[in-house]
Amino acid sequence: MSSASVSQPYDEFGLFHENAAEWGLPYDGPPTVRRERVEFAPGRHVSALVWGDAPPELVLLHGGAQNAHTWDTVALALDRPLMAIDLPAHGHSDPTDELFSPRAFAAAVEVAVRRLAPDAAAVMGMSLGGLTSIALAGRAPELVRTLFLVDVLPSINKERAAPIGEFVNGPESFASFDEILERTMAFNPTRSESSLRRGILHNAVQRDDGSWVWRHQQSWKPSERAAAEAEAVPDFDSLWDELAGYEGPMLLIYGTTQASIIDDDALAELERRRVGTPTVAVHDAGHSIQGDQPLVLAQVVTDFLAALP
Hints:
Rossmann fold; 10 strands; alpha/beta; eight-stranded mixed beta sheet
């Protein structure tokens, strides 16, 4: 693929037909989606995609080094009003004072949820977004009526997570679109080239000199990048207390391949902390279930919500 293939101006709302076509979803025209910004601190904003005209029924939080568009196929499949948030320092959101802090992120996300989705039936978070969801449930349980965790628990298998850290802490910039695509494909061998190309367009920007940089890396200070490289997988064990104290319905959805960061030890700890918490293992899915098996994920969420009292 040549860089000429991305020479047209980027339209973040102009690619949904590709998501639908790739997964065989019906498509009769662009969905109703708008971008909103909510100030969470003086001069700092959280950005979010709001799907539909009705009040959001779901709040979706993406993983580290991703952005709200990672949920596009899931949102199309769910076909219900929802809000997908760009975590601080990701996508179009401004950074907090801490780079990868679920609790700092939760404080910012809380402001956006109270403003745009105060009555949402559930919060679903993947990876860093899942840890942020746990922190949000601890500080504002009234906003997290149901909790979906996608391939994450506070105990993370660091060996399995190491490739994620290696990818996130890769080059600071890429000379061409071909170069950033090649690296992304190398770390995501089970995903289609078209889906990865689309993901890059949503998650990277081209500089005036023609080079490309990930959106989240634009927010990194040199000291923060050094810290991230030194500890690619931070310790989040302290979030078990918030998760154990959460009283609402909860479902863990995890992948079955080695790309998943959930292992037997984490599942055992979940059972010890929250006896009887339901889980769903998604076959042929790794860490990013929303990318590997988005239709299955959407159906699992729909079925779980429908079965609640």
